[in-house]
Amino acid sequence: YHHLLMNEKTVIHERFLPKQGSLQEMPGPKTLSNLVEFFWKDGFGRIHEIQVQFSQNNYGKIFKSHFGPQFVVSIADRDMVAQVLRAEGRTPQRANMESWQEYRDLRGRATGLISAEGEQWLKMRSVLRQKILKPKDVAVFSEGVNEVITDLIKRIHTLRSQEEDGETVTNVNNLFFKYSMEGVATILYESRLGCLENNIPEKTVEYIEALELMFSMFKTTMYAGAIPKWLRPFIPKPWREFCRSWDGLFKFSQIHVDNKIKDIQSQLDQGEEVKGGLLTYLLLSKELTVEEIYANMTEMLLAGVDTTSFTLSWATYLLAKHPEVQQSVYEEIVNNLGKDQVPTSDDVPKLPMIRGLLKETLRLFPVLPGNGRVTQEDLVVGGYLIPKGVSSLCHYATSYEEENFPMANDFRPERWLRKDNMDRVDNFGSIPFGYGIRSCIGKRIAELEIHLALIQVEKAFPSIPTLCIHLQESFKRFGSD
Ligand code: HEM
Questions:
Q1: Which residue, of 150, 229, 246, 340, is most buried by count of CB atoms within 10 Å of its CB?
Q2: What is the pLDDT of residue 290?
């Protein structure tokens, strides 16, 4: 046992040395009470609260639980999370993707980056990372994103003018949802969808419905994965709805990819030089099959909409609640950029408060409160020898640890301005985009869309409280404020 502790890969801090060493003695909820917590008391909708409750009040920073046959070790400590993620091999495995895989097998579809595993995943990741993972790769999308932001601002003016008081935007998350979808589609499909128009095209409406179904089915889809197959004949709805929403999402991506194929073909037929962005590159380079392109476009669009829109909603909500912060953000923009300049990604480094605002928003409201990994080897974590298997990393809980973030409950974007350990990719207290080779591939795209939109919204509406945002409905999913 001590030999393991001394092993270079598994060196751990003394404070984690266990009172008891065996996995059997690791604390955790009883199987039955855990099932009641998740399936009866809506635990899938309160994952963030359960993390905090279990780690701070009940069991400590490392605890075990059973979901039916599945054994899970949950980790709610910055250094232990770091240890697990740093021990990852070349193809880290995401946990609980079986239902996604099953749908794809059923329909003869390929897996995309989120659902693929092993060498298949590595191949796709290697292709996509070259195009969208570095800030300079996504800088070229500034112009397209700015066009979408112009439409967003117009839309806000329209919505306000339709209100009695001329100021209120009643469902701001719906607005940002459409902005995020339009923004990410501009980048992925190289075409506009019309989400921010007064009359949204029919195909786009259908797609928004499929996406909304997928998101509103969020918990159900978790059940779809968690409910054993033999129970499906008795509880058929979750699986049926899960398949229905995937059908809608794949169908929409396929339409856009097929349109691009036709465009390219007609340009080639006319002897024109074919130029374009990500999708054009993927189709021309043939590094991925067309089925793989369908799957990746589908999964990236799915991953890139509500993540970005909820973050934007929370950021504006926090600004509205903290006028003093809003004032300093506004002054920074006006002083460092001027009032009339349309910002591009090159301007963002001149605006540290905007960057701090995004990081602080994601610390307080990380869209994904936790993440799962199937560890590939046995590890000694927190003094316990944990056999390879499912680990759940509790990012929400570590984000609210005083030890990691003094005055953790307070909204303080300026905490990210300090150039010390705080603002580093390996600040494992808050890693809203994950860490390492399996981290979010859309991180730079999301940052671009969010930074540029916040700058422009702030410039256009320097006093967000008078934008008067009603968020209650949108945020029901996150529990109360
Ligand atoms: C604020 C916005 C976003 C947040 C907070 C976010 C967060 C995350 C997180 C936590 C993961 C899991 C990482 C891991 O397992 O270590 C992830 C994966 C992923 N995200 Fe994002 N994401 C955002 C926006 C986007 C956008 C805009 C796109 C697409 C353009 C995207 C595409 C993906 C994909 C494809 C994966 C799977 C990567 C892989 O397994 O290789 N995300 N994201």
A1: 246
A2: 97
